[in-house]
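User: Structure please.
Assistant: Input sequence and predicted structure:
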Amino acid sequence: MAAVSAAMLFSSCGGKKEAAASGQEADEKKIYTLKSWSINYCAGTPFFVAEKMGFFTEVGLKIIYTGETQPPQRIASVINGNNNVGNGHPNNIAIAREGGAPIRGVVTSGVEPPDEIDDISLQHMWWIVNKNGPYQSWEDVKAASDRGKKIKIQLLSLNNCNDFLTDIIVDKYKLNKKNILYITMPDAEGVLSLKRQLVDIIAPHPPYFKAAEETGVAKVLTTSREVAGKHAGTNLYYFADNFINDPANHEAIKRFVKAIKKAERYANDNPKQAEQWTEEGLGVPVQATHYYARNGAIDDEGIQFWIDGAIKSGALPADTKIKVSDVITHEFDHYGNEEDAI
């Protein structure tokens, strides 16, 4: 009887180990899905690269693109589950959380290129005037705004990088804020509007730099690194808190972080190919793509910089309780590092 019991015990242990191994293997083979709006703007490059190179497939992840979602509806679409993953700047997330939107950044995406990279096409944003227009310097803009002239500045959206960084310029040059008009429109429309002198200044992102230059009238006044240094381009991928807090979703988030960061490293290392795929995906001329962090680690100092800027601009109240820990989680960012694996 003792011999039989021992045999049953060892047989049972072996069965459990085999079952566990089988379960792990089955989990590795499982295909996870995430929903995202169709990335038909400057943030599309990593998705275009990941799809072309098979990086999502490689980690057992399928992205379901739900169609175009306008900027004001994107955060809401992640909260209500119509989409699972979004991307935005730290102030975008901080302002949303102040308003009660439970979203949180999980990994760093775009960043400002380091100082040793002097190609301004890789910087996060440009501020461009029409070289045939009345404003050829910020001093010209200041003089006109002081005289009561309304200065029309095109921005892609508000409560984002566009007005945050432009507000820094307005303060730096002491422009008359009463006479600065932010006009929101897509970057592609902004380029055409500048050529027709319907707006005075545009603030496009990389895919649209080439389109601006091809008009033959573009003159660059300022670039983002001049405005805000190394933190000017910080961008995050975010998920809703309830999605993050559900253990059933952790594997999908990990796999997304791994695949998207691999795609971003590829874009940095193969810029011409990334530009070509971005051009195909967007259907516009592309001179450069965004520059991406090599690894996924989120820099708390950089997040605080954007929170402070949002307070200064009035987008967040001076007595806000929003902290860095409300804006991001470090639970997943290391999965985007080259040396780490899921």
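The CA atoms of residues 167 and 313 lie 7 Å apart.
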